[in-house]
Fold these 2 entries.
Entry 1:
Amino acid sequence: MGDRERRTVFVTVGTTCFDALVKAVDSPQVKEALLEKGYTDLIIQMGRGTYVPSKVSGDGTLQVDYFTFSPSIADYIRDASLVISHAGSGSIFETLRHGKPLIVVVNEDLMDNHQSELAEELATRKHLFCASPQTLGETIQEMDIETLNPYVPGDAKPVVSLINKFFGFPDD
């Protein structure tokens, strides 16, 4: 078993409750899609959520583990081959900074959703993939990580103007 390369998928909801994302990741369709892409382990940070994912893993299935909070999710992000995240800007930029492939899952239950605009803009620029809980399985099946553009943190200008646009500040 030890000779198999581990390819971990790390799922994070930050400090929020986003059961729809945890449920989606726990679904047979999503697990199947991840397996087909060659991922071996699934680690879910479930935040304040109440939905508990199933840990059952047999042969040919993902090894699943989960926890609520960790003082530093940076380690999990660093070790991951793929990150599936809620649309919080902290989680997004942390993942992009580590140069990890990222699927941002937008929480459609949030009424005031600046977050989805940020995620969609970064998806348009091909820094990440964007999904909803309903389309996550499809997104995993169809994604081609090779098509992603590395995010270069040094170039803050586009991001700054994006943030200014959200908050209605003039762009200098």
Entry 2:
Amino acid sequence: MDVNGAVAAGFEPVREAFVRNFEVLGDRGAAVTVYRDGRRVVDLWGGSRDVDGGAPWERDTAQIVRSATKGVAAAVLLLLVQRGELDPDAPVGAYWPEYKAAGKERTVVRDLLAHRAGVPVLDRPLTPAEAADPELGAAAVAAQTPVWEPGTDHGYHAQTYSWLTGELVRRVTGRTIGAWIAEEIAGPVGAQLWLGLPAEQAARVGRVGQVETPAQAGALRTRPKRAVADAYADPASLTRRAFAAITPMPDENDPAYRAAALPASNGIATADGLARFYASLIGGVDGGTRLFTPETVELARGERSAGADRVLVVQTRFGLGYMLHGAASPLLSPTSFGHPGRGGALGFADPESGIAFGYVTNGFRSSVTADPRAQALVRAVRTAIVG
């Protein structure tokens, strides 16, 4: 397998793991980037740009990163808190009056970020075209009756996170969340990531698709617990209903879908863009902009939800907008915070070691929070820094 790019001395295990992902774990096309203390120490890419094609992956190839987008969206809200424009303890209805409907008047901003809002499902799912309309999506979630009392429990808001965060940002700033990310995050830190893909960037984005796990990889994976499998199979479960808040599932290769701005699911990034974003949260990148103050880092990684997740049916941990290191989503260490994308992508920062990590792929798997390819790379990073 021809792998392009470079690793700094000591990070050779990451190259070895990346090659093995193609040879054993069935990657078709992928890239991984790692920063340490704001300096790029891993920058690798290989395979084909399209999951079903032969054109080579280039250094600036970008892919849809699914729920890894949630970590970028969370940064918008936390930066608004950092700037004093948003109070995490204020009722959502103070900024978005329509949200007070159907028993949600006591929901606070922290609840949205920590997946405690109680609205992971929509009684009437939206079509892909409806979901792309931010006003329609916001109206649907504002009218939704919670399935548990907000603030009392947690469950992954797989799709509704889009309209919860997007509308709150619009009400506070007057800008769309995609524009805010472009102007206040991606631009200042030089990160190649987009929410609402501009037409001029479309040619660099590869085709994605579902890929079968090879037998060799299957032998290395832990089989899901029966309760998890049953939840995904049951159309009436919160699990199925949460992921089906948009029905049918959008075509992720459709230019119209990529041009929409769904903060829960359709951000597009290069591996370097994802890693550079996380590096900028915990320090200056190449001597440049740092986005989060130390106090905001603590908001991001301070545990707000933990235990049995009512949607994912596993033990999950969340800070404000970020998944935290744990059995369901292993990151680098207990200080790490970040977000996976279902079936592939992963981005996170680890303040203790100064590591920021980004992995993107064009081949999605059935895993939700702990893709074996991303996990192999994380373990290799850990080996590199521990020695």
